[in-house]
Amino acid sequence: MHPRLQQDLDDLPGILDHTNQLAKGFLAGLQQRPVCPPLAEQELNAEDKILREEGHGALAALDDFWQRYATGLSASAGPRYFGFVTGGNTPAALAADWLVSTTDQNSLLSHDTIAAAIELATIEQLKALLHLPADFSGSFVSGATMANFVGIAIGRQWLGLQRGIDVAQQGLAALGPIQVLSANAHSSSVKSLGMLGIGRDALQSIAQQDNSEAIDITALEQHLAATPGRPTMVLASAGTVNTATFDDLPGLLALRERYPFWLHVDAAFGGVAACSPRYEHLLQGWQQADSITVDAHKWMNVPYDSAIQFTRHLALQMQVFQNHSVYLEAPTLRPDNYLHLTPENSRRFRALPLWMALKAYGRNGMREIVERNVTLARRLGEGLAASKGFRLLAPVNLNILCFALTEIEGEAEAARDRFLARLDQHGVVRCTPTHYAGQPGIRAALVNWMTEERDIILALESMRTCRSEAI
């Protein structure tokens, strides 16, 4: 064995103890850490961009990394990171994720680990939490992009089989053009269309309802009536990125009865609202969708990377993703034969953090996170609406705010960007830029399990200060 490897093997308990100390220090300082470190802190030294002939061992590498680059790590796991839709790590999920790396299981149905059984149990518990029916199967994938990819891939296969074509075997050319209809398709779904050979140009935007990001059901029906016989997918939103708007799923299901199409519901963060009696009505009808995306590393607060794809068409899923090899188990139809259900062959044991979190906090714990985040998002919205220099671009429907600066003439986008740059420099709260209804706007998404009232107070103070300084 190489001497450095032998040295680290002998000192493995010490290495793990030291790593634990670094991790504890990071978490203890999370509240004070900038949500966006300065760009200069996000750069590598020239010497760390090249490979050395000889290494210095794990402890030296750990200390070198932490001393040089810890200041370049953001507080994205903390309570005031409102950029994108990024959750944190509950203690149970974090502990489980450490064990995932330690035990290093390949979570296929390989009959040499319990990983596949825990994944199947987690899927069943998640269906119970979100009120999804028994006929759905599910698999863990790396994120919402891959969950959307899997759902659309199964839909592509379904469209082919309606016309006697096995797209997975014969190729997309045998089916011909597909039309994909949506009012607000997430960019990851558009990316998936490119990867799947359907093509980004297949996406056609349907009009939105007045003063809403939801699809206009009448406009969709008119389009479907005008394109009879076209292989069609409809991509529904259960929580849009700007305003957390939900499409009218019962209305879409009624249309599907008259114009058969594949209905995919992107519920990456919004689907978790189904665990709350206050908000489960927003998901009415998703139980009849063909495929669904839910992202665990958003509102369920497990570490990256972790999302779940659900479908009612397990056999079609296996047709798409089956993997034939003499040394692997055959693609028998069962919901835990994961080798044949997702794009990955080797798969990290990413179900364990969510399984552990559900075990640790139960249905009530998950519901409390959702309801607290929504309450705080509305308080933040009220505070901004009452503050000079801000205006809401849309009502706070759930846990996302979309707002803009006021009193800006002719340079709204530049002023917004200056404000966000100042906010990043202030380091208290992180928001991201967007456009809504043709206007430059700002997004704030609340999904972190630690966010409390005091964080809203701090966020408002920082926003007000940066508003006055940045213009």
TrEMBL record:
Gene3D superfamilies: Aspartate Aminotransferase, domain 1, Type I PLP-dependent aspartate aminotransferase-like (Major domain). The keyword Cell division does not apply. GO terms for molecular function: carboxy-lyase activity; pyridoxal phosphate binding; transaminase activity. The modification N6-(pyridoxal phosphate)lysine is found at residue 298. One of its GO terms (biological process) is amino acid metabolic process. Its cofactor is pyridoxal 5'-phosphate. It comes from the Bacteria. Keywords: Aminotransferase, Decarboxylase, Lyase, Pyridoxal phosphate, Transferase. Belongs to the group II decarboxylase family. This is Aspartate aminotransferase family protein. It comes from Serratia oryzae. The lineage of its organism: Bacteria, Pseudomonadati, Pseudomonadota, Gammaproteobacteria, Enterobacterales.
